[in-house]
Amino acid sequence: MNAMVMARKVSKSFGALKVLDGIDFTLPKGEVTCLIGRSGSGKSTFLRCVNHLEEINGGEIYVDGSLIGYRRQGNVLYPLSESEIARQRLGIGMVFQRFNLFSHMTAIQNVIEAPVQVLGMNRDEAIERGKKLMTQVGLSDKLDAYPRQLSGGQQQRVAIARALAMNPKLMLFDEPTSALDPELVGEVLEVMRGLAETGMTMLIVTHEMSFAREVADSVAFMDQGKIVEYAPAAEFFGDPKEERTKAFLSRILKNAGSERAAA
Amino acid sequence: MTPENAISVSGQSSIRGRMESEAASGEAIIIAPRRHPWRWIGGAVAVFLMWRIVNSMIYNENFGWDIVAEYLFSPVVLSGLGLTIWLTVVAMTLGIILGLVLAVMALSSNPMLRYPADVYLWLFRGTPVLVQLIFWYNLAALYPVIQFGLPFGDVLAEYSTNALITPYTAALLGLSLNEAAYMAEITRAGIASIDYGQEEAAKSLGMSRVKTLRRIILPQALRVIIPPTGNQVIGMLKMTSLVSVISLYDLLYSVQGVSARTFQVIPMLIVACAWYLLMTSILSIGQKYIEKLCARDAL
Fold it and tell me: What is the complex's ipTM, to 2 decimals?
């Protein structure tokens, strides 16, 4: 099977509010896709459904061929147990908007926690690998720093290293730069760009249009719980087909333009 | 450069100019300390009152200081003190453990765990601990015999309730079950204070619920849980004096035993208070120290 993520008719409601409305989506292995759209369009919710942090109300999501969160028998989906879901999450790394580093642990402890506690990796071996990952994200000198001693950009890079420590086959990014001061955005995007170059499959919810244009293989635009347009990045930005996409892009680019003029 | 910038630059330079001219005049300006006449007056009144009170305590023979000195380190008082400390430590430990279990139950999404925890809190916080102590002590009146066995099957063991519920077990049951209800509330608040993002991050790394609680949530929640737990320990130390109603020889019941023979009620109460104060003072110092540690960690 060539798809890393495959979603079919995925729907999700919070009470009466329909957040996801029949999402069909395929992310091939080794590709980078950016999910863009206004806040409230459902893009973060969809991302969170991929590793079952949110339960879906309809449809199905497969990651690397296995059905997430459920076992299928005929036409009925039976919920998996907590431990089975935990096992499915092992292959899926996630990076959060607010970093969510474990605040009582140093950077390196954050990175080795899950490999040691969940995978049962030898502690020395985990530290060895953790140091390599911290070097990869450019923080080899911050191993023993607590999260509160790090800048937002540094915390987010530790969070990326922590997710990579589990050797995931898929990385989910939920607005990884939205909580950062503008001057710290670049260092995080740099790490993500490097990760994309290693061939990691990545699904990224972002507002960084220039990053999406440069790094993503394809871009999906979401609006009102639906994927409105899903196209290769060059085509998406160069020649959008849908009216709503055009309106969104022109608004975003106009804002970015006026910000640049102000600066 | 925009016009606004130009204005603010000129404003700064004019301030600098004024400061230079004042410094040049050569006279240093001194700020006088604020005067507090009422503190001196209040202090004088307090010293006078203290002198009168201490005086009366020393010269009023009814205080019986010689008897206080005689019994302060007597074996009967020290053994009562030992039991008070033992009850405090054991009841508190049991209370903390059961409180943690109740807190986790109360926060569970499973209603079959949540509702029993709620009922427990309702029952044990809603009745006086003194009543609970007397109740456990008299359990035999309710269930004369306690049996252990398989459901609908053979009885494996059978005990007379009076043999099982000694004053010691009644005291421990009463104190620790009551304490558990309060510790559950403290622990629940501590766990709830941790950002949900921590749990989500642990989940996304494939950690199980138990591991997430033990490795991620609880260590951080301790900062919130420990300071009020210090208050509970101090409260427990004093609450143990209630076991005197089920005739257990704690510190209070021991000194009461002495005064029942010697009719020296006040001196013996002073003996007890001296020991209670000493222990709560030690606990308070420890509590301040631990709170400082927690606050530093919380930065």
Answer: 0.92
